[in-house]
Specification:
The chain is α+β, with helices and mostly antiparallel strands and 113 residues long. The chain has a single domain, classed as Alpha-Beta Plaits. It has 2 helices and 4 strands; from the N terminus they run βαββαβ. A 4-stranded antiparallel beta sheet has the order 2-3-1-4. Helix 1 runs antiparallel to helix 2 (68-82). The longest helix has 15 residues, at 68-82. It starts with a strand and ends in a 17-residue tail after the last strand.
Length: 113
């Protein structure tokens, strides 16, 4: 199993949910937060002598777990659909999941998804 986490702008959330619903039977988890990537936030200058500004941007974290066989296809689809070749498109992190347990039934592994 692979855990897939996306860090994206909130305006892409609906599209990500549509894409992931075609692959993931385990559902998704969404959390809001703040951060920055290569663009290091952006600055809004309020006066000539003021260089303070926003250093972190609102972001959305979307997590899901998929079977190993689907992970590459999920990531390729997300990159193809969400990429605009601009700063702020987001990041995708893929990690191995050792096990999953469905609390209600005690099922392990792929059956727990």
């Amino acid at each position: 199993m692979k855990a897939i986490e996306l860090i994206i702008n909130g305006d892409k959330l609906d599209r990500v949910m549509q894409l992931l619903s075609t692959f993931s039977k385990s559902g998704i988890f969404v959390a809001q937060g703040f951060g920055y990537g290569h663009q290091h936030g952006f600055k809004q200058v309020y006066t000539r002598d003021d260089d303070r500004g926003v250093k972190i941007l609102p972001k959305v974290s979307v997590r899901t777990v998929v079977e190993d066989a689907l992970a590459e296809q999920v990531v390729d689809t997300l990159v193809a659909e969400l990429g605009s070749a601009s700063f702020g498109d987001g990041k995708i992190f893929i990690t191995d999941v050792i096990d999953a347990v469905r609390v209600r039934t005690g099922e392990h592994g792929d059956e727990a998804l």
